[in-house]
Amino acid sequence: MVFGKSCSQCSVRDAALCGVLADADLAPMAAHGTQRRLARGETLIRAGDPVRLCANIQRGLMKISHTNPAGQEVILGLLWPGDFVGTPFLDGGPAPHDVVALGAVSLCVFAQGTIERTMADHPLMQRQLLSRTLAELGQVRGSLSRLARATALARVAGFIAQTAQRHRADSEDERQIELPLSRGEMADLLGLTIETVSRQMTRLKAAGVIGLPGGRRVLIQDPHALAEAAEDHV
Amino acid sequence: MVFGKSCSQCSVRDAALCGVLADADLAPMAAHGTQRRLARGETLIRAGDPVRLCANIQRGLMKISHTNPAGQEVILGLLWPGDFVGTPFLDGGPAPHDVVALGAVSLCVFAQGTIERTMADHPLMQRQLLSRTLAELGQVRGSLSRLARATALARVAGFIAQTAQRHRADSEDERQIELPLSRGEMADLLGLTIETVSRQMTRLKAAGVIGLPGGRRVLIQDPHALAEAAEDHV
DNA sequence: CGGGCATTTGATTTAGCTCAATCCCCGTGG
DNA sequence: CCACGGGGATTGAGCTAAATCAAATGCCCG
Question: Is A149 close to B74, i.e. CB distance below 8 A?
Fold first, then answer.
């Protein structure tokens, strides 16, 4: 894959931006992809409905969320550019959760029937999908551990640190990041309330660990102390 | 797969007991399996070590666990007979978590190199593995939602209800189950303390929802009320 | 400039934790 | 057969982190 080459399938200018092509083993897939865009708040997959697609995120973030019987929303995870969503299988059963765009999103959508045939012909591609899914399973189990025992401070600090890591690649200023979520969304993701999230942010700011220049921006003043705070368990 | 036939690879008397053979698509795998037994407390996979095996659980339960910086153990999930553990890939990277036997366990262990070659020749088998892994990802995300918002009562009731569902298949008395975990292990799984788990059990008993005949046994007196309690969110 | 929303801050309440004391099985040995 | 331990489980009495309720502040955008 030549850097700078455009992705013919997805009409993305730089091939590197087309998540799916970043991995050579997944290339056979790209031939069957079609472009789709979502606006903020649009639902791609609704819990309970049969999953009719498999897609790779090119730009923007999505949330996997669940609304419990009491009507509270819980954000079960975020999907970043390069991540897959949905299932390549037609008979994958009903979707376990909602998948919703957090902002403007571009996707490479693959038809399930086609992709399943493609997989049969390209074991390496399927291998790569399995490998990624196993890795994700490990990640999700990691966040279980945070929700089980971490203090509010550790959850918030951990989220900021993790977001910073994701941003590091494509950032002009190493130390300044823009959180992809509102305080309310952070609360839903971390299993806290808006007020508690806000208080912990203030606390980190007061301790000189971070700066809050306004909006969703965070200035990481003391990365070491931030990592330390993220490990603060009861 | 003929019911009642013995599993020649795993020396399990009834083929149906050999988890891996329960699924026809996974049959090619069985030819490469070797039997292994673990005693209670034995560690199969240690977090951080490279994962050298892929196995299918035949009998007994295992826990996926993580010990956080403060030294508290968190149980991230349970593995039941029929479940897979480890990775079929040699380059799967370091294990994200520990995997430990909760009691006596029998496994069908597959060599990674062999299984990877087998997968290349049997796309349906790989397909099945991917499909199972995607399903498990959904399950784990479901438990995230419980840890994020559910009350102590809901966590405990949910665990009992879930265990009952698993037991239903192989139980003589529909209503009586034997919990696979001690109170302490339940606490580590549900993100609570031993005392809180105990109090919620007592509460369910006092409400006539369950009976506690002693040991780890639970008598489910009112399945509907139990399900209701499991949905009790703040 | 002002309205509407997100965020912050404050006061109070509460679910679950901590610490501490039994209790209850259940196996062991006298 | 029964006293004696011992580990898991239960129960009790405060304590605390985070939730809840309520108000104030800041900020974006017309």
Answer: yes
Give the tens place of pLDDT for each residue, A179-215.
999 999 999 999 999 999 999 999 999 999 999 998 8
Minimal-distance CA residue of chain B relative to A134: B133
Q: Which residue's C-alpha is at the least distance from the C1' of C26? A: B215
State how far the Cα of B26 lies from the Cα of A204, in Å rounded to an integer. 51
Query: Could you report the average pLDDT of every consecutive run of 10 residues in chain B (234 residues)?
Result: 42 48 74 90 96 93 93 95 93 93 94 84 86 96 96 98 85 84 98 98 97 94 96 70
Interface of A with B in 178-217 (CB under 8 A): 190-191
> How far does CA B28 lie from the centroid of its chain?
24
Q: Which residue is nearest to nucleotide C8 (CA to C1')?
A: A198
Q: Do B20 and B113 belong together in one domain?
A: yes
User: How many Å does it take to go from CA A202 to C1' D22?
Assistant: 20
What whole-number distance in Å separates Cα of residue B120 and Cα of residue B118?
Answer: 5
Residues A159 and A76 in one domain: no
Last residue of a domain, one of B147, B179, B194: B147
Q: Pairing between strand B176-178 and B217-220?
A: antiparallel
- Domain interval for residue A166: 150-230
